[in-house]
Design brief:
20 helices; alpha+beta; Cytochrome p450; globular; six-stranded mixed beta sheet
């Protein structure tokens, strides 16, 4: 039986490495130890995996040989009743209750909303002035998720929730500030000016707004509304039980974080890669120029090259670096290795996406690889896998393609700097360092001369 190797470096050093420089740390470990190795993380020793065969074995045996323990960091951020924090029967119940808002026919209702918000937000940028792509995409995805989730438009509470959520996320936005979440000894409330005290108070203010909205909507429940909050309030399990206020609050936090911050980060990367490589920009603009006026958002969503650009964006620097933790229920043999009961294991999405045997020249941004080949869910897994694959995956893909298409079709932008943008930890995500500096030039010349654009979508 083979022995799983790992670094002999002190535990604290390994934790700091994965916090401050996750990409280089993972790459150096994989180069040294191969497809499976032990890493000392903030939850203790974890067996990290990146081969498709191993990931397939784990994902197909969820709830049988492996259980998913609650993630302490996600619980801190989102709450103990969030679908990502639950396991077993509780997780299955919650996931089932949350499925209806993300079915395809409901998702289509959001298409026009996404395109209109994108144009409205980007039109506020000044021609000739620099801007940060990630701030632009954060504003777009924030408005989309708030309107899709709450069905609120310009209400005072919507504006308050938006402001509070942005402030709360900013408190853990850099590698240094993210350490609050990863080191328990930093989580001490020493008053409103201490980092953890500030984090706690921001969360309390946000909670107050969310609970007020939940209470108001319960008292005025309208079954004809199609927003996610209404659908959650109406949802019933097999025993006829609905979700409690706290369960709904935690799921709202999950949707606000997962549906806003992750998509905004992915979009910022997409804007960077499209403008970084002229040939990619030219191809995507040629494809967008074929669209007729008033094109249905689902037609835009299915454009092959646009789809490939978004897929390659999520491959090269996936927003989520790891899959959810799994824990062995009993002793397990995995690809020739013996794992004792209680062993913590985790897939490395980043390392899987960087495998040369799957993706030749993995550091090169090449959308064509997704036109030439269909990858299995164990080879390409930006949204995780198994029973824990992201619930909002379809909505995230839909939004990402529509926002990118709308931006490129209606606004002419260019990179404000020529130097490469490097990945950096942003809270629990992997985002572009500096947020991608861009310059707004005006309307795209190529599409202005065409009678068919997506400006009226």
């Amino acid at each position: 039986m083979k022995l799983i190797k790992g670094s002999k470096a002190p535990r604290l050093l390994q934790r700091l490495q994965i916090l401050l420089d996750p990409v280089n740390t993972l790459e150096s470990y994989a180069k040294k130890y191969g497809d499976i190795f032990i890493l000392q993380t903030f939850t203790g020793p974890v067996v990290l995996l990146n081969s498709p065969q191993t990931l397939q074995e784990i994902f197909t045996k969820d709830n049988n040989q492996y259980e998913i323990p609650g993630d302490q960091i996600l619980q801190l951020m989102l709450g103990k009743y969030s679908v990502v924090s639950l396991s077993g029967d509780r997780h299955r119940r919650e996931r089932k209750l949350l499925m209806p808002p993300f079915h395809g026919h409901r998702m289509r209702n959001y298409g026009e909303l996404i395109c209109n918000i994108t144009k409205q937000v980007a039109s506020n940028l000044t021609v000739g002035k620099k801007f940060i792509a990630r701030k632009l995409t954060q504003e777009i995805t924030m408005q989309v998720i708030l309107q899709a989730v709450f069905g609120l438009y310009d209400s005072p509470r919507l504006l308050q929730i938006k402001s509070m959520l942005a402030d709360w996320l900013e408190l853990t936005a850099s590698p240094l500030r993210a350490s609050l979440l990863f080191f328990p000894w930093l989580r001490k409330d020493l008053g409103p000016w201490s980092p953890w005290g500030k984090y706690q108070r921001q969360q309390e203010k946000l909670d107050e707004l969310l609970y007020t909205e939940i209470t108001t909507r319960r008292s005025q429940l309208d079954p004809n509304r199609t927003d996610v909050l209404t659908l959650m309030l109406l949802a019933r399990d097999e025993e006829g039980q609905g979700m409690t206020d706290q369960e709904i609050r935690d799921e709202l936090m999950t949707l606000l974080f997962a549906g806003h911050e992750t998509t905004a980060t992915a979009l910022a990367w997409a804007v960077y890669w499209v403008h970084k490589q002229p040939e990619v920009y030219q191809k995507i603009m040629q494809e967008l120029a074929t669209l007729e006026p008033n094109t249905d958002p689902m037609t835009i969503f299915r454009l092959p090259y646009l789809t490939a650009v978004c897929q390659e964006t999520l491959r090269i620097y996936p927003v989520a670096i790891f899959t959810f933790f799994r824990q062995t229920k009993k002793p397990v043999e995995l690809q020739g290795y013996h794992l004792e009961a209680g062993t913590m294991i985790q897939g490395s999405i980043y390392l899987t996406h960087q495998r040369e045997d799957l993706y030749p020249e993995p550091k090169r941004f090449k959308p064509e690889r997704f036109l030439d080949r269909k990858f299995s869910p164990y080879e390409y897994l930006p949204y995780g896998g198994g029973s824990r694959r992201c619930l909002g995956m379809a909505l995230a893909d839909f939004e990402m393609r529509l926002v990118l298409a709308t931006l490129l079709s209606n606004f002419d932008m260019e990179l404000a700097e020529n130097k490469p943008v490097k990945p950096q930890r942003q809270g629990i995500l992997l985002g572009p360092k500096g947020g991608v500096k861009m310059l707004m030039k005006g309307k795209p010349i190529q599409l202005q001369t065409k009678p068919h654009s997506v400006t009226t979508v």
